[in-house]
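Quick one, tokens below:
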């Protein structure tokens, strides 16, 4: 069966002055300011600086080592027993069906997730009472997805913004981007993980080499039958090969939706939980735009690409896409300069032996990344 190629594109370019300001978003939510903490952390006095990342302007020349690992934090939503009423109660707003609204539904947050600019821009916000999230209308069994994201500015410590694929089965598959906030001027951490049949424990973490709050940047996941690759602005930062032939599970049997959420995780997200969320900065806002996908859409128990997806032309070449020597070199460079944790190096954690995929040397490759 021919592989049908689907592309969803929300690509109208927005200027910075079209983005909702924090003040605009603040008016959408009412909560008692008396409950918010006014304490601000003094970086020099409150937190020891032995294992702190350098600020962006000095990060280029410094390699980060010996960062603490973060294991399998699988909660993507923050739920609370009370939500303050939205200002003015519920308002009958016109339905937005263009842009990102064609591909995604806001699924939780009591109005804290919103579409702007006729759907071309989507924002998630987090306050003391709740975060927010959205999910794709479609399910996919293999896809190459891109999303431009602008992360929380200023002090984002304690917050987590996610962009990931996940199935709904008990033994679920999942491919994670998680962006862990930090104190003002300190780099965000990209936390990546891969779940296969309900088991994760495949974390790799990196510091970003730019300020992800100053502008939108593109975060991409390639998931085809042969491999999973994570990209930032087109730069591959991690690859996970299909090694089923060696007894390593690979996510290729369960359809997944795309999800995103913004939530509070200050018990672990920033410096191992030593820095907590400063609610005087709330609401915290992350923005999304320009989603695109080359994909095999899953519907009614079958894939639009057939039971044996194979490329039939240039447009669906992503189904066999690989990394060339330049791409593998980029990953090696990323690991040497910006990686802060790699589960394949954690012999203390895996004291009975590293996971099998960490020790397999793939044919024609210099090693497993």
């Amino acid at each position: 069966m021919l592989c049908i190629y689907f592309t969803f594109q929300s690509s109208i370019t927005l200027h910075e002055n079209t983005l909702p300001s924090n003040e605009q978003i603040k008016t959408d939510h009412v909560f008692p300011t008396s409950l918010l903490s006014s304490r601000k952390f003094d970086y020099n006095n409150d937190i020891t600086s032995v294992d702190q990342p350098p600020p962006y302007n000095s990060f280029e020349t410094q390699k980060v080592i010996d960062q603490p690992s973060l294991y399998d934090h699988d909660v993507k939503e923050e739920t609370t027993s009370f939500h303050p009423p939205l200002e003015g109660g519920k308002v009958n707003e016109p339905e937005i069906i263009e842009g990102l609204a064609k591909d995604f539904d806001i699924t939780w947050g009591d109005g804290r997730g919103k579409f702007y600019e006729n759907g071309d821009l989507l924002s998630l916000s987090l306050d003391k009472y709740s975060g927010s999230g959205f999910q794709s209308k479609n399910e996919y069994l293999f896809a190459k997805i891109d999303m431009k994201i602008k992360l929380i500015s200023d002090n984002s410590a304690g917050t987590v913004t996610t962009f990931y694929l996940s199935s709904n089965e008990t033994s679920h598959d999942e491919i994670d981007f998680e962006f862990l906030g930090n104190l003002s001027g300190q780099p965000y951490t990209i936390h990546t993980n891969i779940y296969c049949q309900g088991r994760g424990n495949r974390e790799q973490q990196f510091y970003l080499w730019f300020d992800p709050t100053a502008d939108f940047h593109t975060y991409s996941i390639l998931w085809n039958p042969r491999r999973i690759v994570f990209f930032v602005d087109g730069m591959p930062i991690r690859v996970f090969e299909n090694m089923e032939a060696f007894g390593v599970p690979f996510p290729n049997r369960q359809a997944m939706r795309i999800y995103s959420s913004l939530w509070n995780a200050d018990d672990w997200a920033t410096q191992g939980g030593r820095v907590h969320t400063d609610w005087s900065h709330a609401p915290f806002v992350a923005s999304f735009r320009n989603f695109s996908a080359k994909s095999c859409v899953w519907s009614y128990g079958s894939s639009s690409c057939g039971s044996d997806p194979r490329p039939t032309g240039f447009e669906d070449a992503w189904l066999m896409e690989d990394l060339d020597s330049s791409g593998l070199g980029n990953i090696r460079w990323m690991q040497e300069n910006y990686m802060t944790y790699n589960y394949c190096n954690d012999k203390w954690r895996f004291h009975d032996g590293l996971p099998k995929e960490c020790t397999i040397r793939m044919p024609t490759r210099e090693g497993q990344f």
